[in-house]
Amino acid sequence: xxxxxxxxxxxxxxxxxxxxxxxxxxxxxxxxxxxxxxxxxxxxxxxxxxxxxxxxxxxxxxxxxxxxxxxxxxxxxxxxxxxxxxxxxxxxxxxxxxxxxxxxxxxxxxxxxxxxxxxxxxxxxxxxxxxxxxxxxxxxxxxxxxxxxxxxxxxxxxxx
Length: 160
Fold this sequence. Notes:
By secondary structure, this protein is an alpha+beta fold. It has helices spanning 2-17, 23-37, 42-57, 65-69, 100-114, and strands at residues 72-75, 78-84, 127-130, 143-149, 152-157. The model is unreliable at 17-21 (pLDDT under 50).
């Protein structure tokens, strides 16, 4: 019963937020914020949202939020595991919203970010990674580290 009430609450919040963006675009942003920054404070979630929206505006990435969030390498029409722009999307796990507080916060953060709220430290950032890992691309001289916010390190891609 509690799970049903939670899903109903999350659905109702999504319906209310549809005025801020197309429903599926809003849902994709909430999904990315939740799965990439669940358990972080507001500021960490907002930093992740800022990167998604910066990518959406860049000509180097898809021009929709869902396109950015679900960008992945495919083979014969199937997503290749662990070859996505956002790791949660192709890690083989179902995208479930189990943490109510994080889901509600991700919803608030998505709405605020779509209204233009941005962190000064993430302006122009198109990449980030968890602070406990160092991906190959992070040492590329074309990526300028802008600092750590929450559990992630943020970068600007300086490639011409």
